[in-house]
Amino acid sequence: MRKSGRNHMKITAQTEAVSSPPEEKWHWSQQWRQNTFRAGQKLKADWKKDLHNLGAGRKSRKPPTPFVGMKPHGKCQINSMTCIFTGLLLEDMIERGEMKLDDPVAKYLPGTVKMPTHNGKEIILRHLLTETTGFPFMTENLEYFEPKRADNPFADFTVEEMYAFVSGYQLTCDPGLVHQHGSVDMGLLAQAIALKAGTNYESLLAERICRPLKMDSTQGTLTPELKSRLAAPHADRFGYAMPPMEMGALTPLCGLSSTANDLLKFVSANLGLTPSSLPPLMEKYLAHFPASPDREKGIIHFGGGNPFVSHYTTFDKTRRRGVVVLASSGNGLYRASSIGRYLLESEWQSDRRPKATNLSSQVYGLYAGQYQRSPDFALGVFSMRQYFLSAPKAAIYIPAGFGLAVLLVLLRRAGSFRMRWILLGCVLLAGGALAALTPLVWSRVFCAHYQPRIGIRSEGDRLFIQATAIGLWPIEDWDHAPAGAHSIDELWPPLPLELLPQSETRFFERLSGTPLTFTRDNRGQVTGLTMYDQGKAFSYEKISDQPPKLPEPPKRPVGIKLDTRLLDACVGHYEQAPCATFPAGVKATIWREGDQLIWRSSGRNAPKGAIEIYPESETNFFDKFDGTMTFVKNDKGEVTAVIFQHEEHPDIHAKKNQE
Questions:
Q1: How confident is residue 8, by pLDDT bands cut at 50, 70 and 90?
Q2: Rg value, the chain, Cα
Q3: Domains within the chain, CATH numbers bracketed
Q4: Which of 218, 413, 462, 486 could form a disulfide with 258 if both were Cys (CB 3.0 to 4.6 A apart)?
């Protein structure tokens, strides 16, 4: 980092993979769409100059990809990081002596609100702060009210409806036992704080946190001017722009929007680069949550996302640096945390990175291909450790107990004391051999099954490396791993990164300075590479000279214009009978407004709220929320049923009512 009397941060902001060639743009934008922030800041918004600095050290005839997206003052929803601000408000109230952490929540809410108890235990402010009240995930609130829009279901969720839900809910466990992020806890906490302070949540947030830090673009309620700066969220599957997700009474949970510049002011205050009373409050807030290895090293992470946007903020108090990533696309392997963590560990100053030289394009072509992680002892130990930490205890204790029982039987049958010592010695020798061989075998099985690979492509006089492993997630970011992922000790970010040469065999990644060394055989053929990261070496074997193909762009459904007669054939009421997935069944209504069909469904576990549907053909429709509908017709051409499919919901097979 740059030093001039005191430490400063450095800001960068851009929208696509740094200096990615045009062929890669669609692949980047498929996941990150059009707007991504990357930041680590000095507190002046000279973002064009800083973006140029990020590209320093690159010796290529092609210029970096131009900036085409939002600038650092563009707004994006920050989702679950909103909880941090809500929690800091409570810490501020406690610091002022206005509230106490172990006060019953009912003390601060209207008398008409009946806070549930379990086994006589009350819900206290501490439970709201740590989200351990026992209330369910917020989507279960949809069972208690009917949203107007399916693509913005909580926009009309009022405080009164939240109170009604809380008053009628029966806890299934004692408060303080089960953590559930995404419940009504933060909404209730904000109400309790605001009522005690005699104001509303957003006014108090501005007064006590945002205004002192000059975070003037961090709000929940957006003015027309702020809305014009808001990045449009994008559905993950079809990529259509979506309306901003408004959260109503749950705004204190995940409803704030901010900018890269504002969040970097927040980071700066936490690092002590900007005078503020925030760091002591943050320390008290974090103390309520279990410690983590990163926190013990002074690294703090905040992040979150939904199917349309994702966000990640991280800072290192030891090195006094921070990163903010905002992306207008949804969750998944390509989420903001992958880039954020990588940037935090990157070498930001070009004069501290290795110096690049020039090579002929023919040399670059030698390195193109696919590489797979080589089995080794360290990977075997890591994978064994992860297995034993996650495996059922019975899977460990039963074989161990069986082996011990066999040993005891053999010792009992040994005829003499000398034979028993010989037997024990043989067991120890065999155990030592197994201890050395088992990790190697385990790592081979791991590599064969999960295929941890990277691909390298040459584009003229440029070389790009990218992780291509499917279903793997780095252990250091395991808190953000999607369902079904498997941990690995090291994984490159899943986006194209440029390699620059120091010599014909030694390269480094342009942004981070991470060194790589390629190996060749006696004929000059490239056989593998070794990457060095945080003092560790990771070897990869070249398995193909053909670089991995970029996946084909997803087929985006395109609406067509249908005659209103064909649209009217789909209009009507539909029902699915009760089943295990939908205990109360599903009722759906389709109606037409002009040339537009609109769908609304209701029922437990069914998506709720109205949404426009668009025809691809006479029978196939889609919505911009990533849902598809197939209408079933009989021999007479009459619509008799509809099948609704969405990745976030079970399929609905509803028959049309004969009216």
A1: very low
A2: 29
A3: 3-74 (no CATH), 75-299 (3.40.710.10), 564-656 (2.40.128.50)
A4: 218
